[in-house]
Amino acid sequence: MARRPKRAEHDNHERWMVSYADFITLLFAFFVVMYGISSVNEGKYKVFSVSVNQAFGANGKAGEGNAIHLSEQEMYFKSLVDRRNARLAEIQRKQNESMQNLAKDLNASMASFVKNGQMNVSQTGRGVELEINASALFKQGEADIEPEALKTLADAAKVLAGNDFAIEVEGHTDNLPISTPKFPSNWELSSARASSVVRLFIDQGITAKRLKAVGSADNQPVDSNDTPEGRARNRRVTITVLNPVAEPEPTVLSAPEQQ
């Protein structure tokens, strides 16, 4: 049989294109890195320098360079943290000062309630809290604010309208059950009382989005429900002006008196 002739092998003259493509890719990456370096500030350059040294440094001298740059990096970030903490401290100081002034103004505007022992103003970790005895605002088993209390609450609302702090109004009852067509349980009664105060505040110009009405029924007593005096104190409405910056310790500005 006749042998098949061998195919003539030709040199591949286009192999240089593979190396050329690799070179172009590396060159492109190099210019991207150079552009990135030119558009960052000194602090970011230090971070980049540390990263490059950590990625490519292998000998002892490179390690020493990394340590120097890492120290500079730590100093840079420490300065950022210090400036941030200073800003937060100043914000907290101003917020606390605003809360203290607000507590004094509310104490003055509701002096009649405070004098009669029907309300106390305190500054807690959440903000400024007004605790008002329910007997000063409502008839027993009702949620309509008494006419005598409307003016005092309106005066408080004028003080509260002068700031942008969120306000939470919470109704509380004693543990004696209630069952009427209007209020099947203490949940409905406490919620309705909180809502009555919120509606009054809105009518006095406080923005509705700042307000929240909460009904807690008899689940958060401040005194024993075993005595009439304790139950009277548990029937209350608390108005809390929420502080965006929390306080660690409460400071009582006026103490409540037993009814």
TrEMBL record:
It holds the Pfam family OmpA. The keyword Transmembrane helix applies. GO terms for cellular component: plasma membrane. PROSITE patterns: OMPA_2 (PS51123). Residues 125-245 form the OmpA-like domain. The keyword Cytoplasm does not apply. The chain crosses the membrane at residues 20-37. Residues 215-234 are annotated as: Disordered. InterPro entries: Bact_OuterMem_StrucFunc, MotB-like_N_dom, OmpA-like, OmpA-like_sf. Residues 217-227 have a biased composition (Polar residues). It comes from the Bacteria. It is found in: Cell membrane. Keywords: Cell membrane, Membrane, Transmembrane, Transmembrane helix. CDD domains: OmpA_C-like. Belongs to the MotB family. This is OmpA/MotB domain protein. It comes from Sideroxydans lithotrophicus (strain ES-1).
